[in-house]
């Protein structure tokens, strides 16, 4: 998920239907809280919840067997009689939704409908049904605004797999963390899926075998497409326990999002700039990436961070139907000032970031945050950001007003992308310097 500058035409139109890599933010955006501030408690539905009543989300929930999630969660809330019990219930309910989505994606349990198992969208829309139920809940005991916010945070983390990453100890098995994203640009088409989220569900808790026969355990999480959550530290909070030194420290990580049509991109450089394109909450941020207080970081804050994934080897290793590109381009303000300049071969010394290889949206930002945390902790492992191809509907199913929520091409493309993500991950573990010596 990223904003890319490109010429207008067929290729540009394809980008606009999928991912904002370097698009200009609309001039009129709603006023919103400053980055990192808590959102006010309100009885009004959130922007994301308002989309729930549309035809496509309701059909996705019904055809996946997830239509009962919000109602069941709300019934359970009604039986809770204390804040402590509410916290335990909400935390477990969030984790239960994540497990249910992972199980469905990996073929365990009932399919629950005719929607393909690999679909990431039921998790997204069911979570919103739960957040709506929690927001509307009127407990029979006093619940402060801060306590309700705490419950909402527990629900978010649990239902995204962020607090259930369990890496093995010891030296026999390699440890890998992979992250994906929610669907986004849903005002244009509420049917959209995000292949990075689908890959996260398919990979969570699985093992892959390297070319030398060594096993690696993969643990995953997904993140919201919201500027404010990133400013508040959701990425660092999730990754920090697994980046710290210890017997369960990660051996390789990659953040993943949806990028350009027809190819994977290994983003060589990440930039410290937010370009302002509206997120799923219709909020905009144009500023230097804010680093949350209380987490390890590099000072002064660098304008650029760099991947340590084995990009050169991965770009030449066959991993599936899509080409894998080592993307070195950035946009910078050169040292001394002036207008932004596109650099095909990376940043020049002393320059100020305006877009990394992954653009200036949240995919660039998650790559920047993860690699900045890596550098702050002096973590010497392969890590960086991977962009997947754009997931598109079939040729006869492009109108969101009349189109079906799925079609054979849509499923086939998502399955192919997920399969190649697994192959790229396996290849990275097989060729990364230092991995096999551990």
UniProtKB/TrEMBL annotation:
The signal peptide here is 1-30
Enumerate the UniProt keywords alphabetically: Signal
Identify the stretch(es) annotated as Disordered: 31-50, 263-303, 333-359
Say yes or no: keyword Hydrolase present: no
Record's compositionally biased regions (Low complexity) = 31-46
Q: Which domain of life is it from?
A: Bacteria
Q: What is this protein called?
A: Pyroglutamyl peptidase
Species, as recorded: Streptomyces chrestomyceticus JCM 4735
